[in-house]
Amino acid sequence: MSAFAPFLGQTIAVLGLGRAGLPAARRLREWGATVTVWDDSEKARDAAAAEGLALGQPDRFDALLISPGIPHRGPRAPALARRATEIGAPILPDVEFLHRAVRASGSRARFVGITGTNGKSTTTALLDHILVTAGRSVTTGGNLGPAALAMPLLGDDGLYVLEMSSYSAERLDTARFDLAALLNLSPDHLDRHGDMAGYAAAKARIMRDAATAVFGMDDAETRAVAAAHPGRVAPISGHTPQPGGVWADGPILRDDTGPIADLRDAPTLPGPHNAQNAAAAAALALALDVPRDIIAAALATYPGLPHRQERVGEVDGILFLNDSKATNADSTAYALACYDRVIWIAGGVPKAGGIEPLTHLFPRVAHALLIGEAAADFALTLAANGVPHDVVETLDAAVPAALAAARAADSRAVLLSPACASWDQFTGFEARGDAFRRLVAALPGAALQPRGGAAAGLSPSTPTAEAA
Shortest CA distance to 248 belongs to which of 285, 273, 214? Predict the structure, then answer.
């Protein structure tokens, strides 16, 4: 136990020992708490026991920390969550404990929270890159990068930049963000939150009492939340003027004062959705007194995130883009909208609705290569809309076929944006994207582009971890 013990005398139960739970248990014990941990996985329990953590599901405890993906209410709630409700113990996320510890240390470090259905990882990593470029004391993590309780204590000039999922945001108690951004809202995780109103309310919890509250104005759902916000709103948009905020005027990112940056100088931020992400990061950076010229320089040097329209390499001037993170049609729509004549690799485990929502973007597809379980159904949709395509079954077959198709169609871009989950052929979207990179590297004449930063665009002081 360290001399700093803000949770001394408290008994805290930790349920779920993944990338957030195990670091939380370690840190809470270090900070004086009596910690009992549990996970349904015997392997996870063994790892915790090897570190001297007490295993069990106690009847009495002062607070419960559950890993974000585990529901804390409803029929699927585990016994410890039901017990917490019975005894009146709060169920809290790791961010709550970090905030309490920072304030208990006497630090006035500021907390920046970023959420939204899409774009939150890019905006989080982009803001981190801007702040590092500006020489600020920053640590970045949460849903992206290190878990909250794996982050260091910072002094008064410190900045915590946290990507917040709805799962973590809904469990916040006394923690408050000094600056917060809600980028957009579209239906997601409704099995957890009940309906769109519940989902929006969970996301909006990070906006409470924020001195700077940034809201995306490019969708009706977020505009409605902004309209109900009691404080000052800083509006942002990827394409529409927003007096009092930041927006993209064509390729120019600007505010009421004038131009901030030319997004044509930022090759890793294509399309209006990334213009909105850049607007959000710029609005937050300006509120943190980062000079405009540093924001512009950082946008131009931002390395991008793996698996999100990641520029993997080129063959004879044909660009290969890894957008494996696009596991549904909404995400793929953002990518297809960025290219006029693209060779599209799609397929995997299909989501409800398939690729029907993308029909308005099909004129941008010169040829499609289809893989995985969804291939046959996607082929029917493409055939009905006159899109040239081939069912090739596997990514191994798709990549060389895509190069041949690009040459035949005089296309300058090959886009892996599956609009599907990956579980039929891969262990996750990361494995699928990494396989794509290896396959591109094996093409004759391929020139690979290196991944920037620590492979996730985060500050060197914060080692990366797989985003949940």
Answer: 273
Q: For residue 110, report the phi and psi dihedrals to the nearest 5 degrees.
A: -95, 150
Total-model pTM? 0.89
- How far apart are alpha carbons 183 and 202 in whole angstroms? 14
* DSSP H/E element including 92: strand 91-92
The yes-or-no verdict on residue 468 having pLDDT over 60 is no
Contact 238, 272 (CB under 8 A): yes
Query: Domains of the chain by range and CATH?
Result: 11-92 (3.40.50.720), 95-301 (3.40.1190.10), 310-443 (3.90.190.20)
281-301 confidence digits (pLDDT tens)? 999 999 999 999 999 999 999
The dihedral through the CA atoms of 288, 293, 296, 300 has a sign that is negative
Sign of the dihedral defined by the CA atoms of residues 105, 109, 113, 114, in that order: negative
CB 84 within 8 A of CB 91: yes
* Mean pLDDT taken over the chain: 93
Write the pLDDT tens digit of every residue in 103-157.
Answer: 999 999 999 999 998 899 999 999 999 999 999 999 999 988 899 999 999 999 9
Asked whether residue 450 carries a pLDDT value surpassing 70, the answer given is: yes
Beta strand 365-371 with 342-347: parallel, antiparallel or unpaired? parallel
Alpha helix stretches (DSSP H) within 306-394: 329-336, 375-384
The pLDDT of residue 290? 98
CA distances 33 to 1, 149, 245, Å, are 9, 14, 43
Sign of CA dihedral 182, 184, 189, 191: positive
Closest among 71, 72, 70, 84 to 13, alpha carbons compared: 84
Gap between the Cα atoms of 415 and 215, Å rounded: 30
DSSP state of 453: T
Backbone φ and ψ for 346, nearest 5 degrees, come out as -140, 160
